Amino acid sequence: MLALFADDSAFFATSRKLEFTLNRLQRVLDLLPEWLDKWRMAVNVGKTVALLIGRRVAVPPLRLRGQEIEWKTHVTYSGCRIDRSLRIVPQANHAINMAKAARAVLRPVLTSRLPLRTKLAVYKTYIRSRLTYAMPAWYGLCSQHTRQRIQVQQNISLRVLTGAGRYVRNDVIARDVKLQSIEDFVVHTARRMYDKADHGPQSHLWNIAPLHARPPDRSGRALPRELLLPQRAEDEVSQHTSQHATHTDIIRSQRLLRSHLDPARR
Description:
Strand 4 (62-64) and strand 5 (67-72) form a beta hairpin. The protein is elongated, with a radius of gyration of 23 Å. It has two domains: 2-81, no CATH class; 89-207 and 221-246, no CATH class. By secondary structure, the chain is mostly helical. The strands form three sheets. Strands 3-5-4 form a three-stranded mixed β-sheet. Strands 1-2 form a two-stranded antiparallel sheet. The chain is 50% helix and 11% strand. Helix 2 (89-110) packs antiparallel against helix 3 (116-131), helix 2 (89-110) runs parallel beside helix 5 (144-162) and helix 3 (116-131) packs antiparallel against helix 5.
């Protein structure tokens, strides 16, 4: 099968026997040069890689235009990291590292005397966009621990750009700057994406990533579209609004944050 997105393309084949899969892929690679020459296109063989999903075995190399294609343990397709084990952790680590790198470069801007509104716009444009890239497709498959690691990156960024002290709670900072959590942002983005796909003119995008029936006794991670279930949305809202601290602790944290944000009080 063939998957296309922008200037990225991927061929993939499945079979119970490895030799059948390799033969199918090699047959496609043998026909590819003729098609490329017909449409006056070129492919960089040096950037072409192969990925075998499953157990580690000795695999003969595939060839394209007489050059061997390197086998790797992970590939990056359309900005997403795909591991040979098909786990979400490598993609989550990739997104976290991209956000860390952007925050390190922009740290002088985030700690400057620019207006808070401007620094928030910088964070949303250059840091959060890297952290949440393609998240509606894979965030629902993350474990709770991985989701907490992703949320930590936003908490650190908000603490840096506001200059809040160590005793100010993360939820208080987010509330005062009026910024939703990563999970709420992903749910909102996913709802817009699926609604646009379901009501668009492209029929092949209708009901993309559908909900699959599961046995009632099976406990598993949510599928991408399950982020939009009404019950799950209500649970997330109740969890977001519930506070583990007392009312006095919240007031104290708000005062500490305002003292850091208001230069006149320093």
